[in-house]
Amino acid sequence: MFLRYAKQNQFRFQCSHLRFETGMDFTTDKLRSLVHKWQTLIEAHVDVKTTDNFTLRMFCIAFTKRRPNQVKRTTYAQSSQIRQMREIMVNQASSCDLKELVAKFIPKSIGKEIEKATTGIYPLQNVYIRKVKILKSPKFDLGKLMEVHGDYSEDVG
Questions:
Q1: Fewest CB atoms less than 10 Å from the CB: which of 1, 57, 127, 152?
Q2: CA 33 to chain centre
Q3: Contact between residue 108 and residue 97 where contact means Cβ atoms under 8 Å apart
């Protein structure tokens, strides 16, 4: 019953202005529900500069998945996976501005790209961008802000 109610009442939020301290983070209960026995936890972080001069630190989390005919319980990850994850994170984030990057966080497209790229080495599951910190933002310019968000003049309250 709760799920039906949640699906009917979906909200869409739009961010009009970011302060220096704001970012994105997983809740603790979601993070702890992902961790299970017999799989390897892979964490990676990377600093990324977007095209509109925001410097972000992105933290990625992933878990190894058992292969189809695997006998042993544990699945061990290699350092080449972490390297490949970092490269994909940098390529995805540095090629767009902050507004496009936030739009990529919502449907988990960066996590899906990382899963596809690492299937050749070792299959991954539950790949998420767990946390995003804004390290450095450009100077506040009202003209540029209105240029980016000028088409949202009506109040949808």
A1: 1
A2: 17
A3: no
End-to-end CA distance of the chain: 27
Tell whether pTM > 0.70. Answer: no
Instruction: Give me the helix-helix angle, 109-118 and 98-105, nearest 10°.
Output: 70
Structure tokens at 136: 């450095």
Strand ranges (DSSP E) for 2-52? 23-25, 41-49
Distance CA 143, CA 145 (A): 5
Residue 132's identity, in one-letter code, is V
What is the distance between the alpha carbons of residues 113 and 99, in angstroms, rounded to a whole number? 19
Contact 93, 50 (CB under 8 A): yes
Amino acid at position 107, single letter: P
Across the chain, which distance is largest between two alpha carbons, in Å?
61
